[in-house]
Write a structure and sequence with these properties.
Blueprint: H1 2-11, H2 30-45, H3 48-54, E1 60-63, E2 69-72, H4 84-105, H5 114-142, H6 145-152, H7 155-164
Antiparallel strand pairs: 1-2
Helix pairs in contact: 2-4, 4-5
């Protein structure tokens, strides 16, 4: 393998450059790097790329039985579509769950007092559980109940449901 790397340098000459790091460039702190990564995680899970390409409205609207227009936060019946506020709310919950795991990781430090360790574990578990349950509720709001059953239930039960309900509803 060394021979493959040496072949170009038989013809080419390596320049004698003395490059220096600019004096204004400083290494960012760990918290700055963490904040940038967390912000990018928030934006990507919130669907910023989808929002830029598709340009959906921030919230939707629907008309009730009396003819009044009501705002809708979730785009119903579409798993692959979202309103901007829906994406930001879901992204906040994903980030909250991730922060819960980061908080749980901080409990392993041997210098942490027992009370602080218990508090960190409690806050971490609460963040994870709240995030999970709220995301579950969001998905139940987004999908109709029959399609939700189709995702979770045994295929034999699905066949019985299809026989009972109108088949066009399931497609």
């Amino acid at each position: 393998m060394d021979l493959v790397y040496r072949v170009p340098f038989l013809v080419l000459e390596v320049p004698n450059l003395k490059l220096k790091k600019p004096s204004w460039f400083v290494k960012p702190s760990a918290m700055v790097v963490f904040s940038i990564i967390l912000l990018s995680y928030f934006m990507v899970t919130g669907g910023i790329i989808y929002d830029v390409i598709v340009e959906p409205p921030s919230v939707g609207s629907t008309t009730d039985e009396h003819g009044h227009t009501r705002p809708v936060a979730f785009m119903p019946y579409r798993v692959n579509g979202q309103y901007i506020m829906e994406g930001l709310a879901s992204s906040f919950l994903f980030t909250l769950g991730g922060l819960g795991f980061i908080i749980l990781d901080q409990t392993h430090s041997p210098s942490t007092p027992k009370l602080n360790r218990i508090l960190l574990m409690s806050v971490g578990f609460i963040c994870i559980i709240v995030s999970f349950i709220t995301c579950w509720i969001f998905m139940r709001m987004k999908l109709p109940i029959i399609k939700w059953i189709l995702l979770v239930v045994n295929p034999k039960t699905v066949d019985c449901l299809k026989a009972f309900y109108n088949r066009s509803y399931f497609h």
